[in-house]
Amino acid sequence: MSPEARASESRAGASRAPSAQSASSSDASTPAAASSHATVQAARSRHTPTRAAASPHTATVPPGALPSLRFGYGTNGLADLRLDDALSLLSDLGYDGVGLTLDHMHLDPLAPDLAARTRRIAHRLDALGLGVTVETGARYVLDPRRKHGPSLLDPDPDDRARRTGLLARAVRVAADLGAHAVHCFSGVVPQGTGTDTAWKRLTETLTPVLDAAASAGIPLAVEPEPGHLLATLADFHHLRRALGDPEPLGLTLDIGHCQCLEPLPPADCVRAAAPWLRHVQIEDMRRGVHEHLPLGDGEIDFPPVLAALAATGYQGLTVVELPRHSHAGPHFAAHSLPFLRHAERTAATVPPGPAPALQQTAPPHGAPSTTPEGSSR
Asked: Distance (Å, rounded) from C-alpha 82 to C-alpha 334?
């Protein structure tokens, strides 16, 4: 195992924010780097479905049988581990993949030598047989004083450009890793900003990221987040229509968020969202409270949710999302997978339900998420 791969990723200063123009993590301008990139991509394809399979992540199974789901665990719930140690842990536990949050301790997107570090991680993922989705919800990666700041909705256009640049860089990293998708969210509406202005900023700032995603062949999977401008499935469809339904735009569905604030039950949310699913996050939660809970500690009935998910044919990663449990991350990682596999086996006995019509009326933004986690994790 390479000492470099095991080393903790160094933290870069907030002033080194990426721009869309400098977003590439690849040194493909040199023949050697291009050859290395091609080798990594060929190797990753043995373990990672092609984009055709990942959009909409469908699987071919015998009549009457449900495909096995592919479970992962988020590195934002393993923040106290070196990235290589976290990947080894998940492989040893039997996970199929990882939700890799680009952060100062895990493949820092602002630190030097991103291309070389990304290639090392790609080789490590291949050696362990792990799939990957790139997530961008790090709390302080761009600004050490503002949680999730700056966002795509900031009043300052230069600050919005910093977030756009980070997402464009994440797309390039995802392409170099052979990832299933890149995850992102809208951000909280800044004080004094009208809703119409916020939506205008969101569509404008996402457009270059979607262009980068289209060029890279990587879906951009936007997550409805309680308390954010884009908080519900109905909001996702509003964005989709405002952008003209671009092909790279997909959905990250967080099962706990469905329990928290959607008008439909979580299993019905899965069925309603199926055509746009590109990434799934999962944890337990209670109605009206945005708090990510260990599986079994909240109100969600998981077998019907997993049955609905399997019935869609979705074969991307379903990633456990416990960002406030890193203090005991290995414990929760070890217990989450058996819980999900048991629920999956139980799900095989659950009859499939009809796809519901998506309700376009949703609770007011932020209402269910005031305690204890606020706008996000």
From this structure: 17
